[in-house]
Specification:
About 30% of the residues lie in helices and about 25% in strands. It has about 300 residues and is of the alpha/beta class. Strands 6-4-1-10-11-12-13-14-15 form a nine-stranded mixed beta sheet, with helices on both faces. β14 and β15 form a beta hairpin. α1 crosses α8 and α8 runs antiparallel to α9. The longest helix has 15 residues. It binds beta-D-fructofuranose (FRU). The site of beta-D-fructofuranose has 13 residues, from β2, α1, β9 and α8. Beta-D-fructofuranose binds next to β2, α1, β9 and α8. One of its GO terms (molecular function) is ketohexokinase activity. This is Carbohydrate kinase PfkB domain-containing protein. InterPro entries: Carboh/pur_kinase_PfkB_CS, Ketohexokinase-related, KHK, PfkB_dom, Ribokinase-like.
Length: about 300
């Protein structure tokens, strides 16, 4: 099956520091790393590896819809190279007058494992009409794609989901509800078939556990067949509103935490892999367990290579 993931792409500049600096402090970083980031690109990079190494790859295609700089820019070429051969970026929205993608500057503290992110983006956001044109080619495909949204720019994203509902009525839509304090994410959750909440969003809405978030969200997310919530080192929970199935699993504990950036994106890759590509042979707890395990593995290594 084809997956279309819609979200921003960044170039991440990551400084690893022994502890998070105080304001106006001087601190020496133990390493500097620059790599492609962005929630959906990170998820697709991991999914590409799972499909390449997993049992059912034929006909599976992974597509990114993101706003990128000019098609001929060095950055856009590098972004394609880094995503691997199963990820297609030809339906992205290219801003020809720009040569640089959005950037994130990230401070990763070894003491706490936290990653503090400051973004800069001068590429104009995608509009609903640009999105509608970008997904039109999928109408000719033999199978209805699965659409996954990073929940950003909620006003436009909700219009995009409405467009999918009218143009691809059979399609399933998953939505990530991540950023604390971003207004409008609740509306996106209500429009999704699968909703993945972050701990940060849940806490900013007053929930104190993953289970509480899911149970209290359930009456508002009537369309959803699966709700999931990740809770950092306390693991993750999932609830199937239609069957009442609930599971909470502890975090996959690891000896050494090396890089937590994109752990949530990796969890989503594992979850989507189970839902889309192992829907027949994996049951509900196995899919959650797999996503959790993959995210646990990710934090023990730098970047996203060899996660399969
Ligand atoms: C990690 C990440 C980074 C990116 C930032 C965007 O989840 O996708 O790769 O810079 O978040 O908010």
């Amino acid at each position: 099956m084809t997956l279309v993931a819609i979200g921003a792409c960044y170039i991440d500049t990551i400084l690893t520091v022994p502890h998070y600096p105080g304001e106006d402090e001087k601190l020496r970083s133990s390493s500097l790393c620059r790599r492609r980031g962005g929630n959906c690109p990170n998820t697709l990079e991991v999914l590409g590896q799972l499909l390449q190494h997993g049992p059912r790859t034929e006909g599976s295609m992974l597509n990114l819809i993101s706003v990128l700089p000019s098609l001929s820019s060095v950055s856009s070429n590098k972004i394609q190279e880094g995503l691997g051969i199963l990820v297609d970026i030809k339906n992205c929205i290219y801003r020809e007058q720009f040569s640089e993608p959005a950037s994130s500057y990230i401070i990763m503290s070894q003491a706490s494992g936290s990653r503090t992110i400051v973004n800069y983006n001068e590429l104009p956001e995608m509009t609903r009409d640009e999105f509608a044109s970008a997904i039109e080619p999928f109408h000719a495909a033999s199978e209805v794609p699965w659409f996954h949204f990073e929940g950003r720019a909620p006003g436009v994203t909700i219009e995009c989901i409405h467009h999918i509902r009218s143009r691809f009525p059979e399609a399933l839509v998953s939505v990530e509800v991540e950023k604390p304090g971003r207004l409008g994410l609740q509306k996106l959750a209500e429009a999704g078939d699968v909703v993945i909440y972050s701990k940060g969003w849940a806490q900013s809405n007053g929930y104190t556990t993953a289970e509480e978030c899911l149970r209290k969200q359930m009456p508002q997310t009537r369309r959803a067949s699966l709700l999931c919530c990740t809770w950092g080192d306390e693991g993750a929970a999932a609830l199937e509103p239609k069957t009442g199935n609930f599971a909470h699993i502890p975090a996959h504990t690891s000896e050494q935490i090396v890089d937590t950036i994109g752990a949530g994106d990796t969890f989503i890759a594992g979850l989507l892999y189970g839902l889309i590509y192992r829907s027949k042979d994996w049951d509900f707890p196995r899919r959650l367990e797999f996503a959790n395990h993959l995210a646990g593995l990710k934090v023990t290594q730098e970047g996203f290579k060899d996660l399969h």
